[in-house]
Amino acid sequence: MKAVWDDIKTIIKTRLPNHSYRMWIDPIQCVETKEDQLVLSCPNSFSKRRVLDNYSQIIEEELQKVSGRSLKVTFDVSDGIGRIQMAQNNHMQLPLPNLNLRPHSGRLLRKDFTFDDFVVGGNSDLAYSASLSLASGRGTQQSTLFLLAATGMGKSHLTQAVGRQILTEHPSERVYYVTAEDFTNEMVQAFRHDNIDRFKEKYRSQCDVLLLEDVQFLSGKERTQIELALTLDALIDSGRKIIFSSSYPPTEIPKLKSELRSRLACGLISTIEQPDFNTRIRILKKKVQRNGYSFPDDVIMYLAGELTENVRQLEGGMIGVAAKSSLLGSPIDVQLAETVVKTIVRQGKSITIGAIKKLVCRHHHVSEANLVSRSRKKSVVKPRQLAIFLARKYTDQSLQAIGRSFNRYHATALHAIARIEKGMREDSQLRRQVEFLCQKLEAGKFS
Predict the structure, then answer these.
(1) How far is 17 from 96, CA to CA, in rounded Å?
(2) Domain coverage including residue 18
(3) Can you give the pLDDT at residue 95?
(4) Does residue 100 lie within any of the structural domains?
(5) Torsions phi, psi of 284, nearest 5?
């Protein structure tokens, strides 16, 4: 029957686009035949769902034509079994499941950021397929990928999923998972300690897979951009895999050298959009199940209908409902969910740049005139950066519009946002200050 399946694949290849065939049909294997049944093996659970939803009919049609009789087709997932058997044959140690993986360089990979845990919808279908293709090595022509999405949409999830998949299947691969800021800081330290040659050797010759997040923060860092462009040349020329992630496309990142811009844009640029209502429901159900919660369907539908901004907001709503139910000993119902949502969702357009300016000025004892002035005093610069950060977080205004509201260019606004984000990671006092201002805004207390 294996020969029959090979014949069917040859026919299907002529009926599908080449990339669709390579991605979804070519990896399928015939593992078992019975009197009236053909069992096919898919490499993972998502692939199985995708094949069932989109290609099962064409497979059954061609099977009947080739075999001359009606056979039932069932799909199985044997990826785990295959890996176990291969590891046993080669006397390799199996990777432990559900643990944070340490790549060869950079940050830890989160245990829940896997392909199986990523909920795919129309908003992320291409990004998911491209990431899975790059990780599995099936898309041989694709070695670079640029994931474009707003904060909280899942680009870090897919980036880390690629690293985890590669390390799970090929533990000897040298995967580097770093942010643009990490790369910059490491390069600066290398210059300071006269180790720049070692730094260059590490990234240009000792890296098999580079996962580089938040490339928008390379804006204005000329020396870093030059070094990164040379590093990317070496990696691309040697066919290494590279994933970039950013909140902005390469063409819209200010103060970016043309040499680096062209390298960032040399591969596939895939956007992750806001998930629609049905996808938000599936995301919530997945996260509820993973966390061991029990949410009624009407609560899930309510949260999916109200929390529309991004996946991170959805998760925050779910955790908030579960925590409040546990603390108060109250049942999880829509009434409880409403009280949580009120503190998360900004009410209409009530949070404006003007309201943010008013709150920040009052809290820091500066005038609005000084806030938008050319003053470089620390007592003015820090509140201005805070206000720009909050404007980006709580309004739908573009970076250019936010910059104009403070008499600044959008590159300066981007720098301000980066400074606050970095400060919140390093300074607990600043983090508490930002959280206080966020609570005020979300409660509608602007004065």
Answers:
(1) 37
(2) 2-81
(3) 41
(4) no
(5) -65, -45
